[in-house]
Each structure stands twice: as C-alpha cells, then as structure tokens.
User: What shape does this take?
Amino acid sequence: MASVPRLSDWSPDSWQRKTSLQQPVYRDPAALARAVTALARLPPIVVSYEVDELHRHLASAQRGEAFILQGGNCAESLDDCSSERIVEQLKILLQMSLVLVHGLKKPIVRLGRMAGQYAKPRSTDTETRDGVTLPSYRGDIVNRAPFDAISREPDPELLLRGYERAALTLNFVRALIDGGFADLHHPEAWDLEFMRHSPKYEEYKRIVESLGDSLNFFESITGRPVHDSQRVDFYASHEGLHLLYEQAQTRFIPRRGRWYNLSTHLPWIGVRTAGLNDGHVEYFRGIVNPIAVKVGPSSDAAYLRELTRVLNPEATPGRLTLIHRLGAANIEAKLPPLIEAVRAAGAEVVWVCDPMHGNTETTSLGVKTRRFDAILFELETAFKIHAEMGSTLGGVHLEMTGDNVTECTGGARGLSDGDLARAYRSTVDPRLNYEQALEVAMRISRHAEHARRR
Assistant: This one.
C-alpha cells in the first residue's frame, strides 16, 4: 500500500508558496475562487480503496510480475465525452492488453489517459497568427481551441465542466466493465468498426482464438472460471498540471490518516513542471496516491537522486513511477546513466517508457507528427537496455486513440506526410491510430516471446 510520512510542513495548498509553472492566469479571481470552492464540495471521482489497489499492482510491475499499459488521448476534449468515443478508447486498450497478456504471460495493469486529461503544458504562453497574439490553448479545462479572443480567455467554469466530463467518462467505463463488456471470453465484442480492414487483423484474430481456446481448456478441466477472465481492472490517470483543480479534489481519509488526490488514481508530473523546488513537486510529495514523473534528456543523476528522495522518502515499492521520454536519438546514451543513478541512490521506482514525446517533429508544411519507426526503436531499445542492466521495464506510456486518424506516419499502412491532412484531428500532439497502437502491442508481445526463447 502506498505510504508517505506525515508531513507537518505540507498541506494541499502549500504548493501556492512555491513557483508553479504552466498555471493559467484568470482575470476574475472571485470567479475562480467560486469555481474552486464548488469543485471542492463535489463528490470525488475515484475512491481511496481503488487508489490503494492500483498501488499494489504497480508494485507488482516494479518486480516484473505485471506490465503497465498506459494510453489515451494527448488531451481529452469536453465535446468528445460521448458513449461512442469512450467505447472506442476502451476497446483499443482492451485489444492491446489482450495481445500483451498473450505475449508477456503476465497480468496487465490498464491505465487510461482519460477521465481528466484536460490540461496541457505549452511551450509558450501566447500564440501568434497573422499578426494577432492570443493566449495559448492549454486544454479544455482552461480555455478553448478556436483562435479568437473569447475562446482563448481562461474560464474558471471550465474547471467544473472538466470535473463533470471526467466523472461521466469514468462512471461509464465502470458500468461497461461491471456489465461484462471486458469479458475475456468474448473479445470479439471489442472489434472497432474498421478493425477488419486492418493489415494486422488476422494476426490479432489468431491471438484472440488462442487465448479463447486456452481459457476454455483450463475451465473445462478445473470446473471453475479463470480468475479475472470476466472482469478486468481499469484505472484512470492524467497529468496533474492544473494545481487548483488537483487541490480541490484532495481529501483527508481518516482510515489511512493521509491525503489522497481523488480526481484520479494516478496523477503524473510532466517534464516542464518537475523542478525540485517548484509547486508541482511540493504538491505531489504530500499525497498518498502512486505518482509518476516524466524524465527527459536533461535529467541527470543529481536531479534523480533528490527527486526520488523527496517524492518517495520511505522507498516504498510502487509509490513512484519514472516515465522516461528520451527520444530515439538519445535513449542509448541517456537511459543507462538514469538507471544507474536510481540504483546508486537505493531508490525504489517503477520504470515506464514513453516513446512518443521525445520523437515529435514538424513536417515541411508545419504539421506536428511522430515517425512510427522512431517510436518502435525507442521502445525496443528501452527493453534492451533495462534487460542488459538488470533493471525491469515495467510498462509503456502511449498517446493513442481508437479513432481512424492519420497523425503519426508509418505503421502497417505506411502513412506518409501527405496522408496527415486526411484525418488529423488532434488539437495538441499527434497520436497513434488504432492500427499503429495495436502494432506496438504486437511488437512488445513478440519481443517477450523472443526473450523467453533466448
């Protein structure tokens, strides 16, 4: 179970005494205070028992006994909170987890980047188009994407709209799972409408049939169902960027004598806001949730030693996840020193690879994209380096969607820069489409099968 020491110098709002980056500036402080007060009175989106349960699963992943699949949209849209979109996102995560179970032969911890992924960090505070400068779009919980003055003005009421959509999303996911949607006996129900046209469909179908046969065989000879074959665990995660939103949903749980962030199961800190003396690290050090931090090419040994000491002082397994996002060009040089630094500090961390964010580039037409080959190279290199150093890669973190988008080039269909305009829907970062995401799962699965044969 997650554990942090009792902190006499910490409170849910102590981060406000620090410098906090990437926070929106609201013109009406009174309206902001009313929205935060209203948010603090609303019921939590998750409960502490679920948070503690996830912590135990993450500790298993740290030991190599489970594998984390963390995936979803780069930034959720309030307008996309629909049953169809939620089902499609859940389907692709379930499909991927089925492939991973088949290849890794271990439980999969399913973490959706959903039900709260509404805030996004930006490189600059403003954006200029045709001589007009406006605030940058920071996600639907802050402002709106259209490039006009009204849309780009930070709106405190969006905090409440974000809370509502997050609760609706997670409650619908829970209802689907409790209703048998995730029954491993019937994965054919997870097929996306366009799945049968995928070049990877036949391979996926063989995996489904193989697992189905194994389940039926085991249950026929034992006379009882396989544990967790009819219902899977599913958890929500998001970047804990907007600190007033996170603070408002932070509750003291008497049975544990600790503070929980009950807006999500696992919040994480992005690279841009992970300074040791910044408000995000201050806030995260006091909550009992399992937490994660993104680490990039600029992270060094001294930083990691202090970061792990501050955020996981009792070295509790599963408490702290480090998500490395180094890029295909940097991973071979940068990852080994990070692993060695954590080991030398005697720190306990779960290692997860994010092969997306270090591989973002811009085409000649100014369109952000990611090359599928670079994503695969970083991921496969991460497995190789962790294995060579006696470390454990506990999971993967992906920006992906169940939609048939064209935002990342490459993959089974060989998407090119020219294909991007056909179905580019992301308002922030490019995502893997359903085929590319499934192909990543298959590559991880094959990697595990090859490793067992060696």
